[in-house]
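User: Predict the structure for this protein chain, please.
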Amino acid sequence: MFFPFYKFLLVVSLLFTSIINAYTNKNSDSLLNNSYKELTDKYYKYEYLKEGLVYIKAYLEKAKLENNTKSILKGYHFYADFYDTNYKQATVYIDSAIVIAEKTNFKNKFYPAALYGKKAYIERIEGNFTVALDLYLKELKLFKKSNNNYNINFTKYNIGLLKRDYGDFEGAKTIFKNHLKFIKKTKCKTHNKVHLSTCLGLTYELSRTYRLNNEIDSASIINSEGLKIATNNKAEYYLVFNDGILDFYKGEYHSCINKISSTLSKLENVSDRDNYDIYNLIDAYLFLGKSYEALSKNKKAFQFYKKTDSLTVASNYLVPETKEVYSKLINHYKIINDSKNQLISVNKLLQIDSILDRNYKYINNKLEYDYDRPNLIKEKELLIRSLQNNNSDQSKTNWILISCLLMSLMGFSLVYYKKIINTKRFEYKLKNNNTKSENKIEKIITKPIVSEEVSVKVLSALQNFENKKTYLKPNLNLNKVAKTLNTNSKYLSIVINQTYNKSVVQYINDLRIEYVILKLKEDQKFRKYTIKAIAIEIGFNTDQAFSKAFHKKTGVYPSYFIKELNN
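Assistant: Here is the predicted structure, written as C-alpha cells:
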C-alpha cells in the first residue's frame, strides 16, 4: 500500500517548519548571551527588515528573564517601531508597554514619556488627530518633568505639525523656527549628513507652513536656502518636491510637473519608513492634478485627483487640503453627467468636512488651554522673575542714572517737541449701526511716504469699497483690491497700514468679521447656517480661516458666539 503523496508533502512541510523554528529558537537562545547594547546595534543594522526581528525577540526575552523593566519597555517599543505602519499590531505592543510602565510606576528620563509619543505617532498616521494631540501633550508634560530638552523640542515639533494641519500657521511657524534653532545649536553641522538631514527636514516643514499660509515669497526664500546645502543629501528631494509646488503658484506648471514627478518614486516608497509621509503624497497628487488641469489636460488631472481620493480613503488621513480634491471630483462628474459618482463625492466631502470641523474645534481649543496658555503663563513668570532681579541690581546704580537722566532730559525734550510738531495723525472710527463701540486708531508718521492727495484718494476709494461691501468677495489680496480701487498696490498697503495699523489681509478680515457679527445678531436664519456656509458667504475660502479670524478679532470661536446668541 503506497503512502499518499499529499501526506508525504504534509510530513515534509511539518519537518521543515520544525527545523526552521528550532533553528530560530536556538539562534534566539544563543543571542541571549549578548548584551542589550549588542542586540540593539545588531537590530539597527536591519531596522524595519524581517532579519531584525530575531534581535528584537532576543532583546525582549532577555529583559523578561532578567525582570529588567526598563529593557522590557524598550523591547515592546522596538516592536511598536517595527510595526508602526500596521495600526493593530503596533497598538498591541505600545499599549503593552504603557500598561507595564503604569503598573510598575517606572520613570526615567525617557520612559514612560516616549511611549505616549510613539502611540501618538501611531494614532496620527492612522488619522486619529485628536487622540494623537492628547498623547503628545501628555508626553510633553512628562519630558518637562525630567528636563529632557531634546525630546521636549521634538514633541513640540510634532505638536507643530498638528497646529499647521488645523490652521494655526503662526503657532506652527514659531515651533518650527525654535526647533530648527535648537537643532542647529546642539547638533546640526553640515559635515554630518544625519544632522543635516534633520535640519533640511525642518527647513522643508517651515517652508511648507509658509506656503500653506499663502506666504509664497517667504516659502520660496526658505526653500532655496535649504536647496543650497542639500546636494546629495537624502532630504534633498523634499525640497525639490516643495520647489515644484511653489512653481505652481508662479504659474510655471510644466516645471511643477517635472520637479514633482522626479521625486514621486521616493514619495511613494512606503518601505522608506524614515521619510515616507502620507501628507506629502497627498500634496504631490493634488498639485500634479492642478497643474495638468491648468494646462487643460483634464483627463490626466482626473487620474491624480482619483489617486488622492484612493489614498485618503485607504489611510483615513484627513487634512483641509483633501477637501479641494473632492470639490474637483464633484465638478468633473457634474460636467460628464455622472450623477452616481457625483453623489458619492458629495457624500465624501460632507463627511470629511464634518470630521475636520469637529477635529478643528477640539484641537484648537485643546491647544489653546493645554499648550498655548501654559506657555504664556511660564513666559509671564520668567518676565516677573527677570524684572525682580533687575530691580534688585538697579537700586545700586539708581543715583548714577538719575544724574545722567537730568543731563539728557533737556536735550531729549527739544527733540521730542520738534517730532510732535512734524507729525500727522490718522483716525478711523468703526461704526456698526450703534452696535459697535467707537475705536480710534491713530498712527504717528514722522515722514509722509505718500502724498496727501494720493492718501485722500485711496481713503475715499476704501470708503466706497466698504460701503459696497466688496470685501465679501472671495480670494481678495493686495493686488486684487488695488486693481478694484484703481490704485497702486504699494500705495494701498502704505495707506492701510498708516491709517488702520493693519495689513491689507487683516483689514479685509476685520471688515468681514464686523459684518458677520451684525448679521448673526440680526438674522436668526443666518445663525442656522453651518460654519463653512457662513465662511463662504462672507468671502473666506475655508471654515478654518474664518474661525481663526473670528477668534483673533473677538476672542471666541463663531460656533460659541452663535450658541450664546441662540441662548
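The longest strand covers residues 424-425.
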